[in-house]
Amino acid sequence: MELSSKKLLAHIGVQIDNFDCSKKLNTSEVEFIRNSIQENHFICFKNQKLNGETLAQFTKNFGELEAYPEKDKTKGKIEIFNVSNVSENGDHLPEDDQRVLLQKNNSRWHTDSSYRYYPAVFSMLYGQEILPPEAAGGQTQFSNMLMAYEELSDDKKMLLEPLHQVHSYNDIRRLEPGLPELTQSEKSNFPPVTHPLIRVHPDRNYKKSLFFTSNTSLEIGGMSLDEGRDLHKWLVDYISNPEFCYTHYWDLNDLVMWDNRVLLHRVIPYDYSRYRRAMIRGTVEGKEPVAGPFSNTIRNKL
Length: 302
Known about the structure:
There is one protein chain. By secondary structure, this protein is of the alpha+beta class. It has one domain: Clavaminate synthase-like (Double-stranded beta-helix), CATH 3.60.130.10. Helices cover 24% and strands 23% of the residues. The protein has nine helices and 15 strands. The strands form four sheets. It has an eight-stranded mixed sheet with strand order 1-2-3-13-6-15-5-4, with helices on both faces. It has a three-stranded antiparallel sheet with strand order 12-7-14. A two-stranded antiparallel sheet has the order 8-9. The longest helix is centred in the C-terminal third of the chain and has 15 residues, at 225-239. The mean pLDDT is 92.
């Protein structure tokens, strides 16, 4: 069957119906999905029937899988992250459970695995349990960083061009102090890294986008602490503009795939103690550092 898609918004997203992501993909299907994600940054595959094994199998079509830093936050396979307030045994977790606290941090704008020197490329998130229609929140929102950069004033582009942000996995504990301390091994495996605030995309004709996060730190390097925090707050408010955003309202068994290089995302908060929300995520690991305007591989190209 020939694959086809329909646009969700002009600047983000397509939907693909009548396609089984649990089956073995052929070369043309992989190429179609790759081209779609490159052009539209987000894909929703409707009516899937997946588990950890088949989600991992689908994700591997697009690269190697990341292993999650903390094994006890996963569901079965360490490459499949349990994005959920439901335990592996099906229990509704209390709101102060460390696994739920980690999900609450996802309500801050972020791009997956920005705390790695090679951040993630694609993420695949499968909705096993979703909120009932009457519940508030639970949607996943995305913001287009290519578009956000293009709409910046020239003065703001000049201000941001030399700046970096520190991304620290350990700093999630500072934002969510109820989480237990990382082990020494976990800390040493994921030391803080810095990435440029403006990212350059050689595979998109050297277009530029914003690249930052709110779930690993709230400061900007290259500025005083207060100035950096003020700029960070301005960036969060700026990219929250509905003009840049797409909000995904989940149907049961949706599989969504997005490009972490050009989209930020967040979950809209909901009543974690009242409602169950269970999702599993596979992530395609990055193979190269974030390129900024002053990176050696970029300077002669711009």
